[in-house]
Specification:
This protein is an alpha/beta fold. It has helices spanning 14-27, 50-58, 62-65, 78-84, 92-100, 128-135, 150-161, 178-190, 199-209, 212-215; strands spanning 2-7, 32-35, 39-40, 71-72, 109-117, 121-123, 126-127, 139-145, 167-171, 194-196. A 6-stranded parallel beta sheet has the order 2-5-1-8-9-10, sandwiched between helices.
């Protein structure tokens, strides 16, 4: 099963939520791999890169999660970073081929994390929506902040996806916060989205979608 993870924007916690979901799946005995097709980052930032975080969750090497040529030390959209650094441009098709290479067992869940929001450029010729199409993703997960502006951001992202019925993951959800609760309930009851509020719930939802009954 190929799971593409995108967000309603930057800094919504895609990598943390993905890594924690991987932890939950592996604790349940599932085989999981992760790919960050390309990452751009501030080289002065002492925090681990997305590839480092995902690699710790899966037990892979960071260079396996994201090929070393796709580590772009400039904190702008990846194709912009490549251009600024004087590196060759790359396409969605090239990223898709690299993602599919060496992903292990057929029954493994493959997480593919995009860059920024769903429409943020990830290659010279496309964004995470285009990558999800190129990979024929089975599931798309939208990570959103749980607070103010969530409903608008989620609706716009779902509209951008088009073909998929996504799972919406509300990050930083606080069950004591009335706004968080209202956003979750609106997205579920009025908009009809499948909404989870913690990584364990996402792991369970993905397990259900990957079951033989769900695929039949």
């Amino acid at each position: 099963m190929i799971v593409v993870v995108t967000g309603t924007g930057t800094e919504v916690g895609k990598t943390w939520f993905t890594a924690a979901t991987i932890d939950a799946l592996r604790a349940d005995g599932r085989s999981v791999v992760a790919r960050k097709p390309v990452q751009s980052f501030d080289p002065a930032d002492a925090h681990p890169t997305d590839a480092d975080v995902l690699a710790r969750a899966t037990g892979e090497l960071p260079e396996t999660v994201c090929p070393r040529p796709r580590w772009l030390p400039k904190a702008v959209a990846p194709p912009m970073a490549a251009d600024a650094l004087g590196l060759p441009s790359f396409t969605i098709a090239e990223l898709a081929v690299e993602v599919r290479a060496g992903t292990g067992a057929d029954d493994a869940i493959l997480f593919v994390e995009g860059a920024g929001g769903a429409r943020s450029p990830i290659a010279e010729d496309g964004d995470t929506v285009a990558l999800a199409h190129a990979l024929a993703a089975d599931v798309v997960v939208i990570v959103a902040d749980a607070g103010l502006g969530t409903i608008n951001a989620v609706r716009l992202t779902v509209a951008a996806l088009g073909n998929w019925t996504p799972i919406v993951a509300l990050n930083r959800f606080d069950a004591r916060d009335e706004l968080h609760i209202a956003n979750r309930d609106w997205l579920r009851a009025r908009d009809g989205y499948e909404v989870v509020t913690d990584p364990a719930q996402l792991a369970a939802a993905l397990t259900l979608r990957g079951s033989p009954r769900a695929r039949s």
